[in-house]
Amino acid sequence: MSLFGDGLEAAVQKSFTRPAPKSAPAQMRYLVKQLKGTRTVAQMLRISQRTVERYVKDQIKKPRPDLAARLEREVKRRWQPQVRARARQRAATTGGIVIDTRARLGYTAPIGSTDESRIRHLTVALPPQHAARLLDAQQAGAGDQQLQQIAADALREVYFQDGGRRAGSLDEVRFTDIEHLEFEL
């Protein structure tokens, strides 16, 4: 499970204008149409071409749980690519992204200061340049650690240093003990 990657993907999916197909036959028909053939869908889902054809013809309606999860994941990955691209573009150029987290945010600070490491619940609007870094890294296939570091750097600059207006040298902000994480475009 990729906490940051899945969170960003969920935020993008909130911008969909129509719901993705729910039933397995409808999902299979969508994938066959997108990938232009039953053979490529069968290879992608690791099932036989005949099984794909049976789903398309409504001869099979209920997949086993592991196939249902793969099918749903592949449909959501391909659903409404233009709406997805517009939402990412809007966040990266004008809108920014809101991060809502409850986690231990730690960094080096003098003992006894109000800024030392502790569990914090933050809801922070990150400006477009930080949203662009996060979304570009996610699209390039960055791992959860890299996405986490980009988000931590953004929080350091925007929240802890107040966009550079606040004095103090914070070298690094780290997320630990993440209890809640949500993004909104």
Index terms:
single chain, 185 residues, alpha+beta, 3-stranded antiparallel β-sheet, 8 helices, 52% helix, 16% strand
Describe the structure.
With 185 residues, the chain is α+β, with helices and mostly antiparallel strands. Helix content is 52%, strand content 16%. It is built from eight helices and three strands. It has helices at residues 3-13, 24-35, 38-45, 49-56, 65-78, 81-95, 128-139, 144-160; strands at 97-106, 118-126, 174-184. The chain has a three-stranded antiparallel sheet. Helix 2 packs across helix 5, helix 3 crosses helix 4 and helix 6 runs antiparallel to helix 7 (128-139). The longest helix is centred in the C-terminal third of the chain and has 17 residues, at 144-160. It is elongated, with a radius of gyration of 21 Å. The chain starts with a helix and ends with a strand. The mean pLDDT is 89.
Give the helices and strands, then pairings:
Blueprint: H1 3-13, H2 24-35, H3 38-45, H4 49-56, H5 65-78, H6 81-95, E1 97-106, E2 118-126, H7 128-139, H8 144-160, E3 174-184
Helix pairs in contact: 2-5, 3-4, 6-7, 7-8
Run of helices and strands: HHHHHHEEHHE
Major sheet characteristics: 3 strands, antiparallel
Global outline: elongated
Tell me the Rg in angstroms. Answer: 21 Å
- Return the average pLDDT rounded to an integer: 89
Task: Briefly note the structural class of the backbone.
Answer: alpha+beta
| Residues in helix, % | 40-55%
Describe the strand arrangement of the main beta sheet, using strand numbers: 2-1-3
